[in-house]
Write a structure and sequence with these properties.
Largest sheet of chain A: 6 strands, mixed
Distance between the termini of chain B: 34 Å
Number of strands of chain A: 9
CATH superfamily of chain B: Immunoglobulins
Number of domains of chain A: 2
Number of helices of chain B: 0
Number of strands of chain B: 8
Structural class of chain A: alpha+beta
Order of helices and strands of chain A: HHHEEEEEEEEE
Number of helices of chain A: 3
Radius of gyration of chain B: 16 Å
CATH superfamily of the largest domain in chain A: SoxY domain
Helix content of chain A: 10-25%
Strand content of chain A: 35-45%
Oligomer: heterodimer
CATH topology of chain B: Immunoglobulin-like
Strand content of chain B: over 45%
CATH architecture of chain B: Sandwich
Number of domains of chain B: 1
Distance between the termini of chain A: 27 Å
CATH architecture of the largest domain in chain A: Sandwich
Radius of gyration of chain A: 22 Å
Shape of chain B: elongated
Shape of chain A: elongated
Largest interface: A-B, 34 and 32 residues
Order of helices and strands of chain B: EEEEEEEE
Structural class of chain B: mainly beta
CATH topology of the largest domain in chain A: Immunoglobulin-like
Helix content of chain B: under 10%
Amino acid sequence: MSTMANTNATRRELLIGAGVTGAVMLLAVRPAGATPETMRAAIRSVVGEAAVKTGKVKLDIPPLVENGNTVAMTVTVESPMTAKDHVKTINIFNERNPQPNVARFHLGPRAGKADVSARIRLSDSQNVIAIAEMSDGTFWQHEISVIVTLAACLEGNL
Amino acid sequence: MARVLINVPATAKRGSVIQIKTLISHIMEPGFRPGADGNIIPRDIITLMTCKYNGEEIFRADMYPAMAANPFVTFHTIATESGKIEFAWTGDNGFSETASANITIE
């Protein structure tokens, strides 16, 4: 530590130096997980350079989740689901789980209606995004914020 | 053998949209948790689920560790013909499971 090497350092300077070092160490030991940036990267890998518009998609998760281990989730997309105009895939992403991907559902005109439910895990209060890929190549999204009181199994990792 | 529960209506009107519910027992170990010995428990999840209606694929789901244990997935399809709806799951460590249900169109 550079502050230690300075023999003329006052007690106050030493304390400040130790505090800064401690803060840096705290930042360094934070576990590597999904961040909003890695989520954006995961979204880019699906949508490519296409613009993602807001609308058409409805992601339904209770805003206050008691247990992050099983979170009921429903995605519906407004679409006639015909051979010409249907939903091709529904992609679910999260911000703060260890990985940004949650699931990808492949649908087609045989689905009748774009309405999929599943149970997912959320390791923290965070934003969850559903992105639908339409047969005409456009992407639509819905982003919601979820508060989780009991995080999904990551004990010892945080 | 993983236990599977499937809910497909036994009969349906031609052209109507039916809901299909699936539940399969699986630990879905995400691969990020430390075990009792302090080491990370290796990942063990179902990665793919497919559904075929009389041989034609109508639904497919790619799953990641963020899927909850005992994956429960529901989706919809149009009741076109009487026949068989087949489900298949595959995952880590060679996991593989199949199930099927019959549907009669009135």
